[in-house]
Amino acid sequence: MTWGGGFGGGPGGAPGGFGRPSAPGLPFAGIPSELQSGVDRLLKSEPEQVPSELHFAQRADEGELRRMSLWTLLAKYPGMLALSALLIVVISVVGQLGPKLTEIAINDGMSPGHLHFSVVVWMAAAYLVCVAVTAVAQSFQVMVSGRIAAWVMNDLRVKVFAHLQRLSLSFFTEEKAGVIMSRMTSDIENLQQLLQDGLSQLAIQGLTMIVISVILFTTNVTLAAITLLLIVPALVGASIWFTRASEQGYERVRDGIANVLADLSESLHGVRIVTAHNRQRHNVVHHRNVVHDYRTANNYTGRVNAIYGPGTQALGILGQAVLLGIGGEMVLHHTLSLGALTAFFLYLNRFFQPIQLLVQQYNTYQQGQSSIIKLRGLVDTDPEVMESPNAEVLPEINGAIGFEHLSFGYRPGRLVLEDINLVIAPGETIAFVGPTGAGKSTLAKLVTRFYDPTDGRVTIDGHDLRDVTMFSLRSQLGVVPQEPFLFAGTIGDNIAFARPESTDDEIWEAVERVGLTDVIERMPHGLKTPVHERGQTLSSGERQLIALARAFLAHPRVLVLDEATSNLDLQSETKIEAALDVLLENRTAILIAHRLSTAMRADRIAVVDHGRIIEVGHHDDLVQKGGRYADMYATWIQQLAQSDSHPD
Ligand code: ATP
User: Fold this and answer.
1) Is the minimum distance from the CB of 544 to ligand 1 under 6 angstroms?
2) Looking at the domain 397-476+558-648, which fold is it?
3) Which pLDDT tens digit goes with each residue over 240-274?
4) CATH of span 69-379
């Protein structure tokens, strides 16, 4: 059987692996028989899941991401878009025929000398049909735009997530996780709102205004010109002020929510340290300040809306007053019919309604537009480490690693590694030792191509890492970080992380080889025991053993191992050292050793200091040489002797 069912993949459950959400609590025990018929009924009524197409390549499809705009996102669904446009025209035109029908009913059915009840009935019936047609069109329109929004959101979420998977490590170290989360949540939600009803409302209201203007002018040019000339300039002025003010306001609101989320996510991740250092009060004060800024930004946009909304309403009423005066006078002088004046009044009311709605929708549009700009900023971020278009597949390697005149700096002008030259033979284990901040982990990050050298090159079997595809490189490398990361899923899923297709037997072999058997057997559901909160319920030794088993199962030719700095009890340390021996067998290994006891097990030791390798050699040779390593070793022996004489 292929492993991958994981937590929740009980009887009848399809193998899921890491893609499946796992619930905390007891493992899935199947559906009780009395509920089975209900579940079957429910499943029958479930719509068919259309599997979405997904291609993932290290190099993004250039044009697709670069061109991201509202239009390109929508253009993928031309059929639905055309239907939506047709419905919008129907709503805007048919929905505005009512006052015109009223005018006919008054002039030709109710005026002295034109008393025709049949005309009134016909007009009333036509009015009814218009209302019905508009209502049906509106209902379909909401449905269609909802569907478009759902699909576009689906595409966008997958696209942005896939892009995040491509980005280099540097992006995630520099960008706050909370800010990325807010792009994926509030920015995407803003867009959803815009697509769901914002855009169609903008189109409907805009078109309605045009239709009404045309009708007003065809009814009476003078009256239409006077009304519109009086109101439109004031309206345009107010709108220009409003767009500027609200743009500013919404920028502040968005930054505010991003900061609130960033602060929240940081304090959730650091909850243990916060508690341990009694920083709760300080954190609450800081969060209150961040929330305060967000509230102030919201208040500002609220004030801007409060001025603009009622202001435009007042303009509308002013227009009606003017119309009553001028239009009334025209009726008295028989230059305008009573029906036309009534229609004018009704239309003028309707003319202001779309303006009000447009104002509301403008906010949604603003938010959606700026969300798309921010999302575009995200997808336009190029991975710092790019795969070359001519990258070749790295053939099966022996594992010879070379650093040739390698220099590297995270920031321009500040080198962290300088002119490193080192050859590591296939199958050799080399330990990097040295003071903290010397550049040991950075060297390791260059081997896994998390970063590219500033100068010089890193090679594997003579291939410059920049000339080979990342997939072929990383599928032959194994990495065990200082703090192993466990994902949601089961212990088994976590061990099989690099090779989800592994069989149960293979997983058990890895478990046995690294000496994890009794730990797994003690767990309530063995390999199927769910992992809670990134493995916080496991001891750090257990987490490290799981990470070692994961690396073992991946069968890498080259292994990069950042030794955990946490102090383990003697028994766990012995266990991990034994597991390491198994893991390092027959493979090239780079060991970032924080303990000299670990370094001594390596074939060679490289002492890194201030970004340079100052000594390389076997433990005995280096001790004999009497250099930096010999000093470190002497200090260590001294410390050991001291702790032996003071065992407490
Ligand atoms: P340790 O033993 O404490 O793990 P190290 O020898 O592994 O230390 P590195 O992590 O390689 O040291 O760091 C080398 C230098 O690079 C340090 O001065 C560190 O501050 C800096 N550095 C590390 N990561 C980054 C980063 N993402 N951006 C900028 N500077 C960094």
Assistant:
1) no
2) Rossmann fold (3.40.50)
3) 888 788 888 888 887 888 889 888 888 888 888 88
4) 1.20.1560.10
